[in-house]
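Narrative of activities, Objective 1.

The group set out to show that a structural description can be obtained from nothing but a protein's sequence at a throughput compatible with the screening campaign. Below is one input-output pair from the validation batch, recorded exactly as produced.
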Amino acid sequence: MDTLTFDVEKRAVGKSAARAVRRTGHVPCVLYGHHMDPVIFQLAEEHLKKLVYTAETHIVEVRLDGKTFRCILKDATLHPVTDRPLHADFMALKTGEMLTLLVPVHFEGTPIGQREGGNVQVILHELEVRCLPRDIPSHIEVDISELSIGDAIHIRDLEREGLVLLGRPEQTIVTVVQPRVVVEEVDELEGEAAEGDADADEAADSGEENEEGDA
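Output recorded for this entry:
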């Protein structure tokens, strides 16, 4: 796993101070852990984007006032319109201490069902895991090449050394489903058949009316 190192600066607290930090192209951040007091700092937005806009998990070294803290990005608040980072929480790592985090999932291979016309439907793009700092994976690879239409992979189907996979065991991670177009074509044909039946009924009713008139 890659380790990214950033030099950061202390910052003041409060809403007005946070706005001032953002105007300088930085993001207000907090580093916390069970064994330490929170560290309040600011990080250049361009550096934080390397952690936010990625499909990998990174260990981060934050250097502040001559001290280096090993941590991971725990959470980031993004602007609802621009998606720019507004705030970030980092969690300090301690050797031998278990932690819980989200790890991106990478899907490998082309499913049999997709080659047969099915559609791959991804339900979970991340998995929540518990592990020691030394076992943090950059991502979790899931081989989907053997999936046929109707098949699925669930959390219970995965085992990774050093990781405890959290969440409901029966939760689906990815599945291959029938193409929707087949269903739409069937519905369309049924609709046409119904219209044909309606036309036939109208013609029959019209014939009966003519016979009554002739009588």
